[in-house]
Structures are given as C-alpha cells and as structure tokens.
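In this section we walk through a basic example: taking a raw amino acid sequence and producing a predicted 3D structure, encoded as discrete structure tokens. The instruction is simple. Fold the sequence below.
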Amino acid sequence: MTTWSEFTAQAPRIANIFTRRHRATGNLCMLATLRADGSPRISPVEPRVFEDMLVIAGMPGTTKFKDLARDPRFCLHTATVDTMVGDGDAKLFGTVTDLPDKEVHRRFAQALFEENGFDIRGQEFDHFFVADLTSASTVEVADDKLHITIWKPGEGERVVER
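The resulting token sequence is shown next.
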C-alpha cells in the first residue's frame, strides 16, 4: 500500500497540485466508481488525509460506497470550474480497503470535529475506506502548452508536453 507520505515523496508535483486544488474547493473532489452493471458513477466526496492515509469516508448507505465495497477501484478528481485549468487539475487512481478499526474511526471523527466543528463523534462508519494509490496525473497549462505529469509507484514523475 502506498502511504500518503510515500506518494508525496515520489510525486511532489502531483501531490502539490492535488493538495492545492483540494483545499481551494473546501476539500471537494469528484469520485469515479463502477456501478454493479459496470457503468461509471461520478459522485462528490470530501476525502481527507489522516494519519498518513488518504481516507474516503462519508454518509452511510450511499451508492458510491456500495460501489467501492463491491469493486474497490476508483478515480478521484479535483473539482474545477476553470476550463483553462489555470490552477492545475489532478487525478488519483487506485483501490480502497475498508478499515474496520474503531479506534482509528474515533480519532478521525475527533480530528474532523477539531478541524471544522463537524461532529460525527460516537457515530459508526458503515465504510471507512483507505486509498492505495496506483497512479496519478495532473494537467497544467503554461506558455500555451499543456503539461501532463504522470506518476506510478516506483517510477517517479514524468512530464509530457503537448
């Protein structure tokens, strides 16, 4: 499993753009999952980096989490409204593992409460997904060129210009 610190060490440019865009949208990202029939589903989600894990958790009973429980593959895309991608754009790809550790859940809920006052302390998570990143990419526009940065574990980042 690729931890968040391993990802940021191996892919600093992508991690920086993801973090910047994630913060700029109030932690909002778009999550792509696969429905039972294999067709794609796009859903909003607010992932968090917590204790060196990229956590994808949220409201119980949602179809996006049912999708991930059935097929753990995902794509997480930073939300953007800028068609010129002036501030960059990032996608993270991987699989999730459902972490049943109640003590981690408790610490996560406490950290969330301390961060923004959102109180889910004492509530049970039906799913607490931790991401294992298998690849990532960013798109940036500079000097009238498209700069695409691509990362895979153990390969470092590489930039393609178009």
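Looking at the output, two observations stand out. The chain has one domain: 4-161. DSSP finds four helices and nine strands in the chain. In the next section we compare this with other chains.
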